[in-house]
Design brief:
The two termini are 23 Å apart. The strands form 3 sheets. A 6-stranded mixed beta sheet has the order 10-11-9-12-13-14, sandwiched between helices. Strands 3-1-8-5-6 form a 5-stranded mixed beta sheet, with no helix packed on it. Strands 4-2-7 form a 3-stranded mixed beta sheet, with no helix packed on it. It folds into 2 domains: 156 residues, Spo0b-associated Gtp-binding Protein, Chain: A; 186 residues, Rossmann fold (3-Layer(aba) Sandwich). The chain has 5 helices and 14 strands. The chain is an alpha/beta fold.
Amino acid sequence: MKFLDQAKIYLKSGDGGNGCISFRREKYVEFGGPNGGDGGRGGDVMVVAVGGLNTLIDFRYRQHVKAENGRPGMGKDMTGAAGKTAVIELPVGTQIFAEDNETLLADLTSEGQEQVLLRGGDGGNGNAHFKSSTNRAPRRADTGFPGQELWVWLRLKLLADAGLVGLPNAGKSTFLASVSRAKPKIADYPFTTLHPQLGVVYLDGGEFILADIPGLIEGAHEGHGLGDRFLGHVERCGVLLHLVDGTQEDVGEAYRTIRDELVAYGGGLDAKTEIVALNKCDALDDETVVARKAELVSATGVEDVLTISGAAGNGVQDALRRLNAVIAEERVEAAPAVEGINRPWNMRPAGR
């Protein structure tokens, strides 16, 4: 299934049904009076977050969503049927913006969360509504109120526990493929990954979700290389694994480039816990590894820089355990105690 993380769609709630002009007509009932019913209410437009979806591709082909109109009223004081609500199923993590693409209307962060975006129009009153002591046979009925309409932007931000960041060709896809069942495209040229990828990592009887976004370049926060959209997918990650290609001449500059983009983008990315790893160490001799690690320590100010190889698997388990420790700590802080027991995130049984 093709990945799509942004779509623009048109929404319209249902119009209210018209009121009815009707009079009771029965034998031996000389003055039956008005009995026109009210029109039905138009259907609402509602969004709901559902599990099992991770793309907005359906809205490339379904760009107009309209709720059902209310039915008109009828004689014998019968109110028209209300229009059916149009329910839009969206992936968890979808944000809904107004047409200006800046005003946030809804943020679906948990499965089952729902919100009404547009209310249906009210039905018009039938002539029975206007009966009074001075007007016993009104010949007036109101038309239904029109529904609301709106163009909205849907923007998907993947929900993952940890995210991979780094320059193009830093080995992020290789790392994801080696620790999960995800099958991202891997090649020896930059920008092999064009869409964000998710993988489930099983570790020590537990599991967590790891996100791989396409490589970032300088100016990513301004949209260069679609970097601003890609960075949005790691906004909700609890921890970042920053991979630096050890085969580069200046690993310190490579680290600072990405770090500057995280700071410039905002969204709290620069404040997230960051684990730095020197990748592709299997392609370097021991002396070069020591020298490049020292350069990276100097650039980051962090002593415990990891040395790993996603292709060979060296140091990968240590990196995963570091990620899992941070995720477990954040889950414990976020989740309330249940029956006096606070279960860490990494104690969740695998496969659930």
